[in-house]
C-alpha cells in the first residue's frame, strides 16, 4: 500500500454552519454544492463535511462521543506570524482559541483552535521541515 491520506471527513452537527466556517471563515475552496455533504480542495487531499449521525451510520458505529478524540488536524505555515494570523482568522470565523501561538518543546511555534464541532486544529511553524506539498518525484 502506498501511504497517503486522500480525504479527511469530519462528522458535523450542522453542515451549513461548518461549511460557512471552512469556506467563508478560513477561505477553504468548496468543490460544488450538495445539501448532504461538502468537499473542500486542499493541497494534496480533500476535507469532507458530513452529518455526524449519517457518517456514524455509514461506518456502523455509535455517533456518541465527547472530550478529546485522540487526534488533531494540523496546518503548517512558514512563520510564527502566520501561526498567529491563522489562529486569529479561525477565532474571527467562530473557532475557540484553545492555546495561543507560542514556542513549544520540539523547537517550533504552534497554537490550537477548536472548530464549531469541537475538532482540534494545530497551527504550527516547524523549522525542521518544509511547509509545501510532498515531493512525489523523489526516488527511494
Automatic annotation (TrEMBL):
Gene3D superfamilies: 2,3-Dihydroxybiphenyl 1,2-Dioxygenase, domain 1 (3.10.180.10). One of its GO terms (molecular function) is dioxygenase activity. Residues 4-126 form the VOC domain. Keywords: Dioxygenase, Oxidoreductase. Pfam families: Glyoxalase. InterPro entries: Glyas_Bleomycin-R_OHBP_Dase, Glyas_Fos-R_dOase_dom, VOC_core. Transmembrane segments: none annotated. The keyword Amino-acid biosynthesis does not apply. It comes from the Bacteria. This is Glyoxalase/bleomycin resistance protein/dioxygenase. It comes from Desulfomicrobium baculatum (strain DSM 4028 / VKM B-1378 / X) (Desulfovibrio baculatus).
